[in-house]
Write a structure and sequence with these properties.
about 10% strand; five-stranded parallel β-sheet; alpha/beta; homodimer; Rossmann fold; 7 helices; about 220 residues
């Protein structure tokens, strides 16, 4: 029987490539998307499209009610403007959601344990910004050790992109023929990617650096 | 200024005593109760009563929507009977909620980070049953190490009852004059404690062993 892995799927470049890569490696993939009060539903639509494309089970969990705990982040509040331009420490701090990675990983772990999956995976990568403390490898290592003990059977925490840049991920995805036109990165909720917010700038750069054709339509 | 601690409050004996003890030690307590699809709301009512008694802030977060992830537990499903009698490995396995402690701790961590609290606390104790893998000290230690790294400022994970029995906790609570009549332990949702389920049996024993007067009204 195939081994199963719960993949945290946001519908962006990284997690979609991760899903494709793990399926290619022979895993039975269960995709998990988490709604936590995003200002738009574009991410979930993209996740659904990717899961459907790869014919994998897709679970969506809505924890928007914890929004009160995540107070102060531009990603969950309508009162705070999304910063434009490139990521910098000062402008992007408003997009930090407190302890988000631990919350998301713990929910992936719950699904893994209940389904007797052997592993969970998420697309932590070397480009993760130093303003996110819970993207540090030291944190991920401790979570990996905790997951080895959270149930009687250890749950493996897979982060195969941990030392990849976003451009490396796109290069790998192009080889895997990931349908990047189905993915969504933009923090704004428009019809098309805005092309100006931090993640759009990153997305554009990743395609440029990997010398791949960007299938995205940008507003700007 | 006082240091702040987020206390996971279920409204039972242990977490209520923990709250009282930390307040006594001079902490500013923020209580956090988590609704995860319990079959009754008695626990939350008890938590509210305790938080009100101690005049501390009380946050309630509803993550009932993750119930699908917790499939198979008697605590969240109406289809599975609550096992009666004393805890034993075989009968109590149906009350195991997958990865519950990590999910709860991660949410407490989110609240702590957003409020700039220095610590989170929960009432892990020596009587925690060996059927709960995420009650093991080895797991708690790894989570403690993860919490030291989840934000730029470390978040301390306090488990002052880790080497106490439930009777030790009640003894300490009696000295602190914890209003145990306001607390709730029973897995059933009746008007009074049933006196027969695993947690009721434990509650009765804890009062007997600590030679304290049990203020609880039992159905049986």
């Amino acid at each position: 029987m195939k081994q199963s892995v719960v993949v945290l799927l946001s519908g962006g470049l990284d997690s979609s490539t991760l899903l494709a890569s793990l399926q290619q490696d022979g895993w039975n993939v269960i995709a998990l998307s988490i709604l936590y009060g995003q200002r738009h539903k574009k991410e979930i639509q993209a996740s659904e499209a990717i899961a459907h494309y790869y014919q994998v089970e897709h679970q969506v969990v809505d924890i928007s009610t914890v929004q009160t705990l995540f107070a102060g982040s531009a990603l969950t509040s309508d009162d705070i403007a999304v910063p434009h331009g490139h990521y910098t420490d000062s402008s992007m701090k408003s997009t930090v959601v407190p302890n988000r990675n631990m919350v998301f990983l713990s929910l992936a772990g719950a699904l893994a344990v209940s389904r007797k999956a052997q592993a969970i995976a998420y697309a932590a990568h070397a480009g993760d910004h130093t303003i996110y403390p819970d993207c540090r490898m030291s944190f991920i290592t401790k979570m990996r050790e905790a997951f080895a003990l959270c149930d009687w059977e250890p749950v493996s925490l897979l982060t195969p992109f941990a030392s990849c840049t976003k451009a490396d991920i796109v290069s790998q995805g192009m080889r895997l023929k990931v349908p990047y036109d189905l993915t969504w990165s933009c923090y704004e909720g428009g019809t098309h990617h805005c092309g100006q917010c931090g993640t759009c700038v990153e997305r554009i750069e990743a395609f440029q650096l990997s010398q791949a054709i960007d299938p995205t339509t940008y507003q700007a």
